Queue: 2 jobs
Job 1
Amino acid sequence: MSIASRVKPMTPPLILRTLLPPYRVLRRVFLQVRTRLRCRRFLSYPEPRRIELGPGMISPPTGWLTIDLMPSATFYWDLRRRLPLPESSVAEIYSSHVLEHFPLPELRQLVNECVRVLAPGGIFNLSVPNGGMYVRSYTDASLRAELFGYIKSPPDCELGTPMDVVNHIAHMSGEHRFLFDEANVVALLRICGLPNARIREFDPSRDVEVRRHESLYAIATKPFLTDN
Ligand SMILES: C[S@@+](CC[C@H](N)C(=O)[O-])C[C@H]1O[C@@H](n2cnc3c(N)ncnc32)[C@H](O)[C@@H]1O
């Protein structure tokens, strides 16, 4: 008999197995009701209204509200769903290292939703991993060494080959679904109704310094109906 077959799988005690599923359902319902109530309150706030998508553990500047699948977010919400906000209700949307978590169809749907909730003249400001730079590192050993130096827990980097760093950013242990470069981030924003989308520089007043080496930045404003 092998050792593996003698080791009993760990099962949680009966009380936990009984209570956990209803607890999870109740918690989800609570968070969803709280989100709906907060959305209503959000609309009574004085303008400008600003939201950050997927801040994770990073606190946004004062006055910004957040949407994330974390209970600490103002709006506990799955970004693959229609955003819980009315059309043209938001002055600015910021997002850092979130868009790469969605495959292209969901990504387009999310950006379309951002455009819907932005008011005309509203700003969509974002940062994503610079996939193009990681791809370039495949043939550039010094860039590869530099990028590798930043990777703290390298589950995709154990083979010691030039493709490791590319795999790291492309997959991030299964969390990433899309690779960006300057051309496709601008193309995505333009195809979703933001024709003036452009690459921008790092903004120390808003962007996260620890992500600077791996990021590219873009910005766009929602056109007014009269804009060409
Ligand atoms: C890599 S973290 C980025 C955190 C922070 N913005 C930063 O720059 O370090 C990605 C964030 O997106 C959120 N996220 C990923 N998929 C999501 C989804 N479907 N709905 C809502 N939030 C999601 C995660 O919970 C996480 O907070």
Job 2
Amino acid sequence: MNAIISDGSVALKLRENHQNLKNSELFNILDDFEKTILKGGPDISDYRNILTSLDQLHNAMYREENGLSVKKIDIDLLRPLKSKYREFFYNVSSMQGLSLLKPHGYAGDFEVIERIHGHNVSQREEFIKWDKFFHTADAVKAVRNRSQIILDYIAAENPKSVLSVGCGSGLDIRKAVYNSTATTFTLLDNDAKAIERAKKNLQGFDDRVSFIQRNAIRAKFDDKDFSLIWSAGLFDYLNDRLAIALLTRLHAGLADGGKVFIGNFAKGQISRPYMELIGEWFLIHRTPEDMKHLLKESGYKNIEIRSDETGVNLFAVGEKDLNRESS
Ligand SMILES: C[S@@+](CC[C@H](N)C(=O)[O-])C[C@H]1O[C@@H](n2cnc3c(N)ncnc32)[C@H](O)[C@@H]1O
């Protein structure tokens, strides 16, 4: 990898092929990015520059529509770099390679989330600096922060029974399971491999923890028995129509006085260009008002919006509204 000499050809070729692209600064950014690949990844002193550069590229390529990034030009500015350095970008041993390749068929799978929790850094020299950079991203810290947030909430509220929807490998809820000995937990995910991994991560708690492999969108939650329904890392993939349909079904799964606690990435979060340009990991980002709207439309009352210290995680907490249910 380090034997390849930067000849600036990626930026040059793009410039030749897209002479109508007005902002020539973009080519310099791509050239710098190539140089960073060739020197073996970013040093800490490069981090700010990379984030700013990716932000500029992202702004040039995308606009936002209903919280989702939509192409505004017909060129993928990163494509030539990804083609030239295939081995670098498409390699599951790096965090960004795993994110980009999506070996389990979807973004945000249990494996990438586990590696985030484990602060995993590749053994391969050319990925070490990139993986260290990855783990400093606010979005990545936000994923890790979820486990403390739900731990604290459950410790304070002492719910009798908790349902985690889109549980992945269960690492977000694991500390809470350890800590809350009087609470039962049900973990639901549609990915069989994620459920398998969650069972492994939570073995030894069979008396209080159970698992369901099911598509949450199609599932019915009519038993009215959960005191708390937690879902982090799932609603960011659902448009408003699906989100409201799911929240409405979850409403039926809550006991009287029960609450939902729903996470979503916030609009304006700083890691978005890195996630979307390098990892092709696209999410529906929402504002606190968007979150409130979803819960309101789905029949919840006493809605409250929270966030974590990164500001990337937004959470909407809402209580089951019995009036709404009977109407
Ligand atoms: C980003 S992970 C979040 C995992 C965990 N909750 C966390 O915050 O670390 C999202 C999970 O939602 C699951 N998922 C996506 N769509 C789903 C659906 N329709 N029904 C159930 N689970 C779903 C995925 O399989 C994945 O494990």
